[in-house]
Structures are given as C-alpha cells and as structure tokens.
Known about the structure:
heterodimer; A: alpha/beta; 4-stranded antiparallel beta sheet; 11 helices; 13 strands; globular; B: mainly alpha; 77% helix; 0% strand
Amino acid sequence: MIKVRRLSKSFNVPAGKYFVFPRWKSVEVLHGISFGISRGEFVGLVGPNGAGKTTTMKILSGILTPSSGEVILSGYNPQKRRSDFFKSIGVMFGNRSNLVFDIPVIDSFLLLKDIYGVPEKTFSRNLSLFTSMLDLDPLLQIPVRKLSFGQRMRAETAAVFLHSPKAVLLDEPTIALDAVAKQSIYNFLRTINEKTKTTIILTTHNLSEIELLCNRMILIHKGNLMYDGSIQKFRDEYVDYKHITFEILQKVGRRDVMQKYRLSRKGNIASGRIKRSDQIKAISDILSTYKLSSLSVSDPSLEEILSEYYRAM
Amino acid sequence: MFAARSIKASFVAGVKTAIQYKGNVFGNVISSIISALVIAFIWASLSPQHDFLTYFIAVNLFIPLHFFFSVVMDYERKIRAGWMLPFAKPVGWFSYNAFLKIGSESVLIVLNFIVGMVALYLLGASPSVPVYIVSIIFVIMYEICTAYLISSLTYFTYSVWGIRVFYNIIQNIFGGMVIPLALFPPAYLQMLSILPFPNKIHYIANAILDGNFPYSSYAVLLAWSLLFIAIGYAIHRVGMRKFESLGG
C-alpha cells in the first residue's frame, strides 16, 4: 500500500543576516528513511518535535517534494500530483482546515463531494454513517466559523473520509481537544479502520493515542528511523522494568525490601520500579514482609518510555 | 466532466461565502457610487465641457477592480500560512482559489451591474448590455491571469503586498480610474493603449456607454493575459517544487 525507500529531504535556511545577497545552508531533516505499510494497517508515526514526522506526512501526501528517495502510495508517486492519487488519499493536519470557513458544514461536504467526484450513493451512505458516529447532525447547517474547536474537528474528521480514501494521513488530529471529543474521534477512526480496511497513519505527541489505536509504531528521531514494529515489541526491547505500587496494612517480616528494591514510601503507599527479571522475587519478598491491602504491577506508559528514550538520544 | 464539477463547486462555495457577508457587498456598492460621484464632481469642476459622471459610474460599477486584489490576497495568504484546502486535493491550487473568488465576486458584480444600469438610465445614458457582458469576461480573464502571475511570486518573495500596491497605483493612474484619459493628449493616449490598464478601464467603460465592441482592447487584454499566464506557469512550477513553508 505504501512504500518509502531511502527518503531524504533537505530545507534551505538562511545562513546569516545578509539583505542583498542572502546565503543559505541546507538542513537535512530526513536521512534516507525506508518503511512499508500494508493495506488496513493503523500505524503511529512518533518522534519528538523536529524529528521529521510532519515532513514525512507532507511528502506522502504530495505537498512537499523529497530531495531524494522513492515514495509509492496506492500505486502512485505522490509528487506527480495526479488527481487519481489525491482521490485515493485523505489528509488531515490538526492545525489546518479542510472545510471552508464561511459556509455551513454540509456545504463544505458538498464541495468536497464535487472536488473528489464522489458518487451520490457513496456520499449519502458515508454522510449518514459519519453523521451518526460523530454526532454531526446538529452541526451540518452551521457555518464552520461558528463551531467550537471540538465540533470543528469532528466535522474535519468526517470530511477526510467522505470520499472513501484507501489511505488516510492524520497529523495530530486531536491536538487541543478535550477528552470527550478525543474519545469520539478515536471510536470513529477505530471503527472505520476495522470495517473498511482503510490504511491510517497517525502522528501525535499524545502517545496514549498510539497505544490505544495503532498496531504498529514507527519512531523517527532527528530524521532517522529508529524503530519500526509493534508497540509490545518496542516495550520488550527497550524497557526492562515494571511499575509496582502497594498499600501496606502492617509489617510482618524483618527484611528491608524498600531499600533492596529502591522503593519509595508515602504514608501507607509504596511504589517504585522493579526489573522485569526480578518481579516474581520482588513480589514474593514484599508479600513475606508486609500485610497488604492492594498490590498492582504495570508496564510503564509509552509516554514515559519514549520521553526517557528521547532524553537518552 | 470532473474538472467542470469541481469548478462549479468552487464557484458555488464562493457565492455562498459572499452571501454570508452581505454587509461587505452592499458596502462595496455604496462606496463605488460615492467615489464615482466625488471624482466626477472634482473633474467636472476642472473641465465642465466633459460628462464625467456617466464615465466614472461606468468605471466604478462595471469594471471589477477589486477582483485582482482579492484573488491575490487570498492566495498569497494561503501560501504564506502554508495550507489551503486543495494542497492535497484533486484540484489545481490556483484554479480552486480563483473560481471560489469568481463565485464570491460575482454577487458584487451582479449587484454593481444592476445599480450601475439604473443610475446610467436615470442620467439619460443607454449602456449596452451585450458589450458589458463580453467586456466583463475579458476583464475577468485578464484579472485572473494577472493574479496568477503576481501571486506565484509569493513562493519567492514571501509577500507580494508591495507589488500589489504598486500595480494598483499604476492601474489607477494609467487606466483612467482616477484621472480621465479623455483629458490626455491623443499621442500620449496612443502610447498608453498598448498597456492593459486603459484597455481594461477607460476603453471598456466608454465602449459600454457607446455600445461599440472594443475589439482592439480585447486583443490587448488577451495578449497580456497569455503572456502573464505563460510566465506565471513557469514561476508556479518552480515555486511548487521549492515550496517549503509546510516543513514540519
């Protein structure tokens, strides 16, 4: 579905303050990254600010031209900007709008219908499905400029899928949204991905979204591809600890497990990190030392893992 | 067929946008009438033998002088902001914007036409509707081609505000927008007639009032349009390739 081979992109930036004869230097933001994505996959593209995620998305959507390398999406080279290619993809950038600001939402949808040449039957089916899933019915006759941000983003999400694209590129689609609006968009994306096998690439800094929605993660850092695979495999490869938290009722043994496992205690609640390889022994030590009212062991969040990963790079 | 559908859709979206801002449309019509009256009054006091009122009403209400400005402004702003709806859509970046603007400006053009016709009939003139229709098509075609050329420079200059202002001043002076070209020496007018400005304003306004088709003006406008579109196309192609404002 998507093939990216040795993709590089450089930008020219001013090299100093020269008014008459400006000098430029080339900054390489992507260093020959390669990956492939199959039909129906839901892939999270992650990385810190300036990693090259948005540039990758813009090259995939035909907006930017790569400096070198090859991109094939739905069988097309995006840089040729053929209308059949654009009809096969949907693009949404969280801080930009696909809708016309001054006309009602339904008129923007009708405009997109004509721009994409969507058959009447497909349009009606998609519109009624998306309207019910994203609760758009009360919004359709309202001009886009009068919608709240959350309402607008729901309408934007529907707009991207109206022409039944084969692949959808979503760049921070839930930026600045509240929990309810996010949940509604998550449910929508998950359902569409499962039912229609639409390939979705999602970039976001909210890594819980990636955990919740994606079955694969591509990590880019400073323009290099650092990881490509399942989130669980990433955890297994890069994380050797788990979080443990327990509530103490009373001490029954003499061992000092707090010091042994470097746990911290606040009142009756103790917590800390334990090595995966030590977890059974640590739990057994804790249970023989304390009478507990509760105990939980959990994996660290992707957010935590990646922030440590970024710091270490 | 597909292109026609998207052109129609852009046009309709433009009309709907203009209807959202009725106040702007009426404001434009009223300011056109006021400026026609004021300029005509000033020139009539300097040269009482000429009928400037009908000429300036025709210029201000029949020639879509805001058109070029609004197309360039919108396109430039969208390139600078790094996003417009058709960047990743199966439509041309410029043509989508141009037809959206034709849609929104058409509301003003129609309203100006009605008010202008009524005003001219009340003043005893008999403007020609067929000449108006054909002329307005040529003027809009020229305006789009000029907007295409100038807005494509945004890729290289970041802002074309200064170029727009410069263009507007030249147009006002040499087109007969502020100074009636009827007062110019004939030799000077002959020289100016190879430029698009008098052919877009002075000759067209007079032709609508006289009822004679200004074929030479159409030819000049067509020639300039072709030149602008050729240069604009080359600049656009390079500009789109070097487009970087969206780099993440």
